[in-house]
Design a protein that fits this description.
disordered N terminus; alpha+beta; single chain; 8-stranded mixed β-sheet
């Protein structure tokens, strides 16, 4: 199923995305955060959340209802490819944004495939300057909370994929890029200790990968956790999500390039 940008997201996409994110708080996921920079400091921000390991769990849960066989069969044969523009989001979501001129540029694509055991969503947003990424992250955290239901704005569910929202994360000068050492924050003060420990146990094998693509050859990278690709322009590091959450690792890095 392929839908155009005229698709009305409020009909079923948002409840589906809400359900996917809720399930992800109790299962393994892999995040890829990617920033592509141009010489003038503009570029594109993208975050892909791969939830494919959840498909088996969803199929198992779908077989617990009254219509077990039909529900399991529906998931096993499901094929969905969806594209939604943030500019088309309903007022119930967009009214929570503090920076609508920035956030409305974003696009979210989502794929669910039973036969391929594949489930992921990808959010991308072009930016004019790197500071817009911080503002976009802030709006995303509040926007997810505005979905309501099990995802409340003051709970960690809403901040799951944007744990540094509301903080300054990036700095840019021509030939120089920095990601500041900003601790992850999932609103743990709003979750009781038992629930937090259970969440950490379930997130134990989840990963968080950051990737930066520059317009010129990379000269120096300050953090040894990062590796430079053979193309000489791409820098990447992968962390255990729980280690970032516990403060054992951080994403901080200074990179210079030609």
């Amino acid at each position: 199923m392929k839908l155009s940008s005229l698709f009305q997201p409020q009909r079923w996409f948002l409840p589906l995305l809400c359900t996917v994110v809720l399930f992800s708080t109790s299962s393994c996921f892999n995040i890829l955060e990617r920033i592509s920079l141009k010489k003038d400091g503009s570029g594109e921000y993208a975050m892909k959340v791969d939830l494919s390991e959840m498909m088996g769990m969803l199929m198992m849960f779908s077989g617990m209802g009254e219509s077990e066989e039909s529900e399991t069969e529906d998931l096993a044969t499901m094929q969905m490819d969806t594209l939604v523009r943030f500019a088309d989001m309903p007022d119930s979501i967009s009214q929570s944004w503090k920076h609508p001129d920035i956030t409305s540029r974003a696009i979210v694509s989502m794929r669910m495939s039973g036969p391929d055991q594949e489930m992921w969503f990808n959010i991308s947003m072009p930016f004019k300057k790197i500071t817009e990424v911080d503002l976009f992250s802030e709006d995303m955290a509040s926007g997810l909370g505005a979905l309501g239901g099990p995802m409340e704005a003051d709970r960690s569910d809403a901040a799951m994929f944007f744990p540094t929202a509301g903080k300054k994360q990036f700095e840019f000068k021509p030939g120089s890029f920095s990601r500041l050492k900003v601790p992850f924050d999932m609103g743990s003060e709003m979750v009781d200790s038992e629930e937090l420990e259970m969440m950490k146990m379930m997130l134990g094998s989840s990963s968080y990968t950051v990737e930066y693509v520059f317009p010129g050859q990379v000269k120096k990278v300050s953090n040894s956790d990062y590796e430079t690709d053979e193309d000489g322009k791409t820098v990447r590091a992968t962390y255990n999500f729980l280690d970032l959450l516990d403060g054992k690792d951080d994403l901080g890095v200074d990179i210079t390039y030609k």
